[in-house]
Amino acid sequence: MNRHDDNISGVCTPAVGEAGKTGDWTEMKPVIDPAKCTPAVKGKPSCFLCWLYCPEGVVSMTIPVTIDLDYCKGCGICAEECPPNAITMVGKERGRE
Amino acid sequence: MSDVRIITGNEAAALAVTLCEPQVVAAYPITPQTKISELLSEYVERGTLKAEYVRVESEHSALSVLIAASTTGVRTFTATSSNGLLYMHEQLHWAAGSRLPIVMCCVNRGVAAPWSIFNDQQDSMSQRDTGWIQLYCRNNQEIIDTVIQAYRIAEEVYVPVMVCYDGFILSHTMMPVEIPDAAEVRRYLPPYKPHTFLEPERPRTINPVFFPWRRQNADGVLCDGYMEMRRKLQKGLEKARDVIAVASSDYAERFGRDHGGLFWTHRVEDADIILTGMGSIAAEATLAADLLRNEGVRAGVVGIRSYRPFPPGLPAVLRNARLIVVFEKCFSYGYEGGVTSDLKASLYGTGVDAPVIDVIAGLGGRDVKTADLLGAVREAMKSLESGDRACRTVWLNCREEE
Amino acid sequence: MPGAFYWVCLVPLRGMYRWSGIMHEILWHGRGGQGVVLASEVLAEAAYLQGYRGVTSAPTFGPERRGAPLTASTRIDDEPIRTFSQIALADIVIVLDELLFGSVDIGAGLRNGGILIVNSARPPENFRLPDKPAARTASVDAAAIAREFRLTVGGAPVVNTPLLGSLARLWDRISLAGIERGLAFKMPPASAYNNYQAVRRAFEMTVVGDTRHEQT
To answer: Is the Cβ pair A5, B228 closer than 8 Å?
Structure first.
């Protein structure tokens, strides 16, 4: 804690939570339907367009695909890009239930 | 036996760059700088300079390329003049703020409008506050030596350096220049060690948005905000004051030539009439001082080599001055010449209260002869002797408005 | 310390050539493409090799335009040169194209008592400067000499280097040997040899006018 910042130029290292708890900024949350999600259906690494397009890097390239809701800002790009429409944006309260 | 060649200022600069072995060069031609970019591309083509020469479509791109290259940890070079430098303006701030030790030659040329391709120093001096170190040269020998020193200074304090010299007057005039020994230059200039650089194995973001406040990062480190980063830049330039002096004295030890650190002097020991300036006009002023000495006037010259950081040591040299005459090839419109302002400010409260006469000379390439400088000094001395102690600005060899 | 060592070696050499210790200024008039700048550079090289520590060679400052009148200037001094202003009154003026007398005030740049050298087939009396009665005038048919030694570019004779020979004839501070070495610095051996032959011929062929002439 409180180590000195000896960077002389503006540098930051990518780290989980570097920009703070951004997960609570959102109104909507993505929910994945495994019955439609391509990697889950095929059972092998494939598609992952949600991972590719996520501007916050909170989507995992795993089976099943998971989304870190602590940092997801709810932009909806993953839902927009998902070819089989496996991702739906739902209201925050409903998403938590 | 040493290697002396009779070459132009631009050739001296290009040879110095070759000796410093940068890995990336990007430049866009503009009069009177063009010869440097031509020569460097030739050296790269011939293989005597092993660098990537990036052809760009503008000066803005030239410096952008160097910023990117320097961020990957390599030594870089560019050169420009006048409106080309102004076109780089935004990137000048980026380079300094990113603490990238880029070295650039600014071949001083007047700034439009009206259009001019001839020499004055308005271009570089108008970039004073970009955070770059600015060194001015008085002859071609000093150009080759200063470019080499510039890399050492830049890489020690992580501040980019602009080596400025007068367009045509030096860039196109041939004179004898001793070429430093390549092996000795390598010993003088250690390999560049970047403070931080981009590599695929260690991803990082360079220059993200900085907030007005300090903030804690994910590792719990309290990171500096924008203001601390800018303060660090100033600390870099403050450190440069000593580093420039040491770079100069170490160079003198190895190569036998001392051009001064932040400034140089000519016959100032007992001088009470001080002439000062930057670049070739300061060299010309030494002739005026010698002529005044012949008449029994105790005249001397202080040549300012480093405009930024501005030398803090001037009041000590000027303590016996009765009169200070500043020759400037630049003007801060609405006030006075930039060097005059800085010089007056540095004398404030030091007890030196000699009148400072600001002589604006040679704008847009107007010829300045030793006799012109001499005339300006005599005029100033006459005023002083008549009891007039006012500081004033004089436009030399310029038609007076009715 | 190569620098210091170099100057130490040069000191005795300098003594041989040292004379009054004042600066010599040479102004070259020609047209873009005539090699005015190269001639000035060769002269600077020659002077340096003869032991003058201070030499500069400067072109007209500004854009380069083929055929347009231009000048080059050479300064030669015992000490390193600290002035980079335009030459006001040259000790020597060399004119590569006599037609320039019609468009440029050649005499304005010459010190009274200086030397005027003109590339012309006509005798030097044709180039007397009324306001510079003390000037020494000389002429040489450099174009004919250039053709003799096949020094041509695109059919046009190269008159710049021959005029160096005329300079050596009129001004004893610069020797033919110095010019020969200067040429060797600036061009490949075959060209240097050829140019030097033209320099020597010009040295012989230069017609020197009366030192002082009466106005008639």
So the answer is: yes
Residue B171 and residue B281: Cα distance in Å, rounded? Answer: 14
Cα separation of A34 and B385, whole Å?
A: 96
Chain B touching partners, 3 or more CB pairs below 8 A: A, C
Closest alpha carbon within chain B to A3: B221
Burial, C148: exposed, middle or buried (Cβ in 10 Å; 0-12, 13-18, 19+)?
middle
Cβ–Cβ < 8 Å for C201, C149: yes
Q: Is A55 on the interface with B (CB under 8 A)?
A: no
Q: Looking at domain B263-395, which CATH architecture does it have?
A: 3-Layer(aba) Sandwich (3.40)
List of residues 6+ apart from C94 with CB closer than 8 A: C26, C27, C28, C29, C39, C116, C117, C118, C163, C166, C167
How far C1 CA lies from chain B's nearest CA (Å)?
5
Residue B397 touches partner C, C-beta closer than 8 Å: no
* Residues ≥6 apart with Cβ < 8 Å to B318: B274, B302, B324, B347, B352, B354
Q: Which residue in C6, C58, C85 is closest to B369 by CB distance?
A: C85
A86 lies in a domain? yes
- CA separation for the pair C39, B82 (Å, rounded): 30
The answer to whether the bond into B114 is cis (omega within 30° of 0) is: yes
Give all domains of chain C, ordered by start, each with its CATH number: 19-206 (3.40.920.10)
CATH 3.20.20.150 is right for the domain spanning B3-188:
no
Residue A56: which CATH number?
Answer: 3.30.70.20
Q: What is the pTM of this model?
A: 0.91
> Domain limits at A69?
22-96
Per-residue pLDDT of chain B (402 residues; tens, 9 = 90+): 589 999 999 999 999 999 999 999 999 999 999 999 999 999 999 999 999 999 999 999 999 999 999 999 999 999 999 999 999 999 999 999 999 999 999 999 999 999 999 999 999 999 999 999 999 999 999 999 999 999 999 999 999 999 999 999 999 999 999 999 999 999 999 999 999 888 889 888 889 889 899 988 888 888 999 999 999 999 999 999 999 999 999 999 999 999 999 999 999 999 999 999 999 999 999 999 999 999 999 999 999 999 999 999 999 999 999 999 999 999 999 999 999 999 999 999 999 999 999 999 999 999 999 999 999 999 999 999 999 999 999 999 999 876
Q: Where are the domains of chain B?
A: 3-188, 263-395
